[in-house]
Amino acid sequence: MMITPELLKARTKKFAIEVILSVEDLPYKTSTNIITKQLIRAVTSVGAIYRSACRQDQKLTLFLKLQSLKKKLKNLLLSLPPVAKPPNQLNIK
User: Which of 10, 19, 30, 92 has the maximal Cβ count within 10 Å?
Assistant: First the structure.
């Protein structure tokens, strides 16, 4: 199956919606609230940056947008483990 721009747009939107719905079940704590807000901003901006990159006509602008998207995804992956695992399962040394 080939990944088209339309398919990737749909997948980023679905991913953002799934993350937003899943964090609704987290307990309300100051630390959880801060990470949750950052996570929601990150997942929604991934789709927004990709859509913006798809609309670009110039190759340099497209490249810069995709670099920004790559950075957002890396940051998103860094913020997932604290939210995804209970504190007793984190390997903090």
Answer: 19
